[in-house]
């Protein structure tokens, strides 16, 4: 077998859809596993979709997923291949496989009934010449079936009689996507077309074009549609679908690509979180399940948390960097303290599910005053909060400044008030960190020091009285 050539062919739209990310990974893996090549093709024939920054966005998104520029040929641009598109159209017309048609949609409806049932072949033998407003239609066979070979779906068969004579070039001479896409695949020697399920219905038409142009059609693979929790196809209006948004929120690339590969597939054994090397070894496009795949954001989030917890602390610290400065961090840059952050990092690492959460979880250590959450304050500062804070100021004044000692003293305060530790520490936590939930309290106090702790306790007491 010759080595496969596959392609990833996004349209530049200003955002990189998670479904596209999955297609890119599938194509890349298929090429790598079979010693083949991956081609990146930008389908940019719509002139309004031709912004250079969007193309850079695609290249950056691929790199984020691990598909660096040395992993593919290209980018090629569909707009640079219009000469070949036109030649193909001309060949089909010259061979009698396509004909001009001047019917409007209303003309067709008038002939076929009150709804559009597809084109009726009216102009097939009228012998119209090219002219303004005359579209070129591909003449589909009246009989037989078109069987496509699909690695995921077997051999779906389409009745040719149900496929209308479809337009391949508009009245103004511009070619349709259906044809441009096929001609580009031919030009680039594509052997396997791996793409999303929504293109399946185009496949028999495209295969007819391959055959009519005298080239062996590719092997197809239509990966399942990605749906939300209501089983609706992911949509950019309804769902969070932009890879860049996940990236900006602090999803790790390795978690994202692991998760994307689980849409319709699972590695061996009872595991889901696996190193990329395992995926690369075990993944088989043929094993992808054809039914719709649920893109479960909650699960992805949990996945990401697991990936974060598995990082070495040093690595975690480095990955936090983007969120420790402008525009994310609410503290003045000069108040950031590397040592303090390093001391808090291991505590924080087990408590963030996405990296952007790091900012709020450590802000108490770097803000002049804690950012007090009103609901937390109202909840924690009830009787006997003032008495607890007073006792804490007293007890903390001379306690050896370790988490363990602070805990022991705080427990003792609780005993005096008949409270468990959790209730006792609530007003202390809100006074020092501004919130009812966060990092382990006594370790946090140990890190920020006696002076700041006492200062905040006193200020909270002042606010209470
Ligand atoms: Zn017609």
Descriptive account of the structure:
It contains 19 helices and twelve strands. Helix 12 packs antiparallel against helix 13, helix 15 crosses helix 17 and helix 15 (385-396) runs antiparallel to helix 19 (450-464). With 465 residues, it is mainly alpha-helical. Among the domains are: 5-77 and 177-226, HUPs (Rossmann fold, 3-Layer(aba) Sandwich); 87-169, Glutamyl-tRNA Synthetase, domain 3, CATH 3.90.800.10; 369-464, Arc Repressor Mutant, subunit A (Orthogonal Bundle), CATH 1.10.10.350. The protein has a three-stranded parallel β-sheet. The longest helix has 16 residues, at 18-33.
Topology:
Blueprint: E1 5-8, H1 18-33, E2 37-42, H2 52-65, E3 73-77, H3 82-94, E4 98-101, H4 105-112, E5 135-138, E6 145-147, E7 157-159, E8 167-169, H5 177-187, E9 192-196, H6 203-212, E10 219-223, E11 226-227, H7 243-249, H8 253-261, H9 276-282, E12 293-294, H10 297-309, H11 313-320, H12 338-349, H13 358-366, H14 374-380, H15 385-396, H16 403-416, H17 421-433, H18 441-448, H19 450-464
Parallel strand pairs: 1-2, 2-3, 9-10, 11-12
Antiparallel strand pairs: 4-5, 5-8, 6-7
Helix pairs in contact: 3-5, 5-6, 8-10, 12-13, 12-18, 15-16, 15-17, 15-19, 16-17, 16-18
The protein binds zinc ion.
